[in-house]
Amino acid sequence: MLIELGHFALILALMVALIQTILPLWGAHRGNHLLMALAGPAAVVQFGLLAFAFAVLIHAFVTSDFSVALVVSNSHSLKPLLYKITGTWGNHEGSLLLWTLILALFGASAAWFGSGLPERLRARVIAVQGSIGVAFLAFMILTSNPFLRMAEAPMDGRDLNPLLQDPGLAFHPPFLYLGYVGLSMSFSFAIAALIGGRVDAAWARWVRPWTLAAWVFLTIGIGLGSWWAYYELGWGGFWFWDPVENASFMPWLLAAALLHSAIVVEKRESLKSWTILLAILAFGFSLIGTFIVRSGVITSVHSFASDPERGLFILMILGVFTGGGLMLFAARAGVMEGKGVFGLVSRESALIANNVLLAVAAFVVFVGTMWPLFAELALERVMSVGEPFFNAAFTPFFVALAVILPVGAMLAWKRGDPGRVMAQLGPAALAAGGVGVLSLGLLAGQGVIALIVLVATGAVLATLWSRLPLAFRRRVPLLMLVLAALALLWAVQTGRSALGPLGVMLGSWVVFGALTDLWNRTGRGVDRFGRLLRLPRADWGKALAHGGLGVTIFAISAMLAWKVEVIEVVQEGGSFRLGAYDVQLADVREVRGPNYISTMAEMVVSRGGARVVALYPEKRAYPVQGMPTTEAGIDYGWLRDIYLVIGDPQEGGGWAVRAYVEPFANWLWAGCLLMAFGGLVSLTDRRYRVAAGGAKAAATTARGVPAE
Length: 708
Hints:
Largest sheet: 6 strands, antiparallel
CATH topology of the domain at 1-165: Four Helix Bundle (Hemerythrin (Met), subunit A)
């Protein structure tokens, strides 16, 4: 009976979503306050109905109700409780219900926290959000109903995909969906503004918190997915440029561009049309990601194997909302004329460059992701696009972005003084160059010598810095280019790649630039530390997010430069060399888990004869699914990870073993968390709250200007 109530709640939610879409839009068009007032309660009711349906589905999984077809396909009575719960969204139907629930949550949040919005804008935003809910609820009820019953309930289920039975994958999808679906709010604000014919600074202030929240959730979701791929798949990497990974990365890039372009709209009333376009495209790429995951057109460990009918339905949703949004954008182009005027060298120009680089980078990822599908359909050729293409095509744009980021963040609005900014960033450039020299020394095996040179040079420059002529100090950042040239010369002479050290220097440049920007906001004189603590939270959030990006670039570059990889066949009791470590395969035995059988190895790592750690990598087999998984043995550290994987037994005896030393691996996920934390800190700033925008709009209305 409970399952039928959940099904009935979905049907009622669809009906409420239709009311939420039609009546408030008509009321906003006619100026009917009663109809517009229905938007908020309808959004809350829809969320309540979907929350009830989702709770019913979770209950079915927890209690192993094998009369439900979805539970039979994705659960088992012996599965641990955590994976029974997460099995709810570890499949197409359940994850689609979670997606729709989060969509309704954002609509209800607009009702709860949007009281400061102009009445017509608020009604239109919630109505557009409701229309997206109509599409996905219809998709779920017609093609992907999670509450279908079995004709005869089996004794047990077929279990969840073993790759998904992991804590990282338990929390990765909800955060990713919060980011994907959060961009629907930016889309709804954009469509509502186009319908109302008004895009201004107040609108930009209203849309930024929603976009920032979506970007934060996407950052956390992508970070969790990368961490899962690192420790679960056993290949020693963190990013494979898999189509589904790219499907989450493209909206992240466009959301970052949208955040920065909205700043220009808010501050200078420029880039209006570009910002609206980004809001439409960011959500459009989220829908493209949904199509990639659920249509079955690609093969991936992340994707749901679905039939073409579902893919066609998603394409229809994509066409209606993205295509319809772009048509409305073209029709209302006249209302988005920019007002602000600014110089070629200014913060506005730097933000435009930021937007162009991020948008082009997203387009490069899109082309690389979709090209194999296009080649197969149009050219009848089977092609693959992998890491070499993405590294060669994507990296230059992100390098350019990192180079201009510290400078652009410190330029003045309207007209900047590049010489003054360069002088202020001189210490940051020197520090980044020093880190680059040190990394080159480490890569060449001359770490101690490089460190001595770096410390001595730093001491001398610290003493003489204040006495250097201003003209020279303005040119100090050019030393980074000199160091880059030296790195290339070093690469030619030694035959080793200098991309790692250059990336380390670039990441350090972004971090030190963010710190310099934060420090310069304290002004001059005494009590600068006190003023530092009193800076707006948005300034702190910006510095943390930019610093997190720099840490991530640093970590990726270090892993590429100093990673050690060894593949060996090792007998029990035998050992092999892994960089500065000795690894012994002490024992291999069979271990039984709750729903799997594991081949577990004991591997002892030592250095200089002293024991460092014992690790226990596993190769698990799940009898119900008949599928193996790899559980790497990892010794996590601040400066390096030791990463061991046990493979299959060999015909001549012994076991295949893969081993890695992963330098600064944990800094990668620390950088992701730092970026997300910076976004959260910015969200707590009062200037980013919707109410602040509402107060400004209310004041404008009081002076006789229409709020719409």
